[in-house]
Amino acid sequence: MLRYYKKTSLSLILCFVVLITTACSSTEKATSTKTAGKLITNDNVPYVGFLLDTLEEERWYKDKQLFEEHIKSLGGQVKTLAANGHDAVQLKQAQLLIEEGVDVLVVVPHNAEEAAKIVELAHENNIKVISYDRLITKSNLDYYISFDNEKVGVLQATEIVKNTSKGKFAYIGGAETDNNAILFRKGAMSVLQPLIDKGDITLIADQYTDGWDPKVAEQNMKEALNKSSNQVDAVVAANDGTAGGVISALGAVGLAGKIPVSGQDAELNGIKRIVEGTQTMTVYKPINVIATQAAEMAFKVAKGENPKTDTTINNNKIEVPTILLEPTAVTKETIDSTVVKDGYLAKEDIYGK
């Protein structure tokens, strides 16, 4: 019921945003619109805008809550909007936050290239942009904070190869419009390609998943099974959502739990599948770490300070100052020492009473 209420409320907010910005079309160019004051009582309080791609996946509720809580604990104010996979809406939401006087925008882009328009609009209004978890490409992006996404793919493929090092493999990736999905695949292929070259592995499917949609992942897996006469030995799936779709397809032909399947995000459903044996692993990216560090970065930028970074990432236009965090592989044996120990998931939710 709570999840339904959140989604319903979000839909109302989204409709409100679209209604007040009636010219919401993908071809319209937003213009400089920053007002003189902020839509908050104290104009001296740092005001942070947080733009999410979606709240239709479990993990983003955690990012939202933790990010907002930490901004407030630092003495700032924050407003979060989610576009639910619509590029034009996300651009309009950026425009709305700029009109409300935000000092910095933190963006989880839906489309890596399209979100460059958000950076351009923000810079026209002297506002810096931090790309959160997913990289905004082909733009003069100010900062980027994420996990080492190539390593995510390495962890996924490595764990699968530990279980099955030969045979017919399928790669079911994320959305090709998400730069992270490309990096996950790159990392995974760094492990798989040498085995493919040796002839130990045959890749029967190598497919991105539009919108990260589990139903699309399920259909992609069904097609792979049909083409291979249900002969598959392992699946590298890019996240827990796509893994769920893959496992549903495998279940329909009696293969769920009989072959290894990877995941990512340590979602409750993914962890439960690991416990029951239908999913082999997930990748835990401690959301409390990225959310709090991103909040601290945003707060400093909002005050006109330059946050410390540890590397740069090329976004196909510039070298973007970046903080990269470490992901962790989670298997059945390490659930308690990772996601439970950190308080990310409750033991009773995973295992029941």
Write the layout of secondary structure elements.
Layout: H1 2-20, E1 47-52, H2 58-74, E2 77-82, H3 87-99, E3 104-107, H4 116-124, E4 128-132, E5 143-147, H5 149-163, E6 167-172, H6 179-198, E7 201-207, H7 214-227, E8 234-237, H8 240-252, H9 268-276, E9 282-284, H10 287-302, E10 311-314, E11 319-325, E12 328-330, H11 336-340, H12 347-351
Parallel strand pairs: 1-2, 1-3, 3-4, 4-5, 5-11, 6-7, 6-8
Antiparallel strand pairs: 9-12, 10-11
Helix pairs in contact: 2-10, 3-4, 5-6, 7-8
Beta-strand content bin: 15-25%
The tally of helices reads: 12
Overall, the morphology is globular
Report the structural category. Answer: alpha/beta
- Strand order in the sheet with the most strands: 2-1-3-4-5-11-10
Portion of residues in helices?
A: 40-55%
End-to-end gap: 21 Å
Features:
3-stranded parallel sheet, 44% helix, 17% strand, 12 helices, disordered N terminus, alpha/beta
Describe the protein in words.
The chain is α/β, with parallel strands linked by helices. The protein is built from 12 helices and 12 strands. Strands 2-1-3-4-5-11-10 form a 7-stranded mixed sheet, with helices on both faces. It has a 3-stranded parallel sheet with strand order 7-6-8. It has a two-stranded antiparallel ribbon with strand order 9-12. The radius of gyration is 21 Å and the shape is globular.
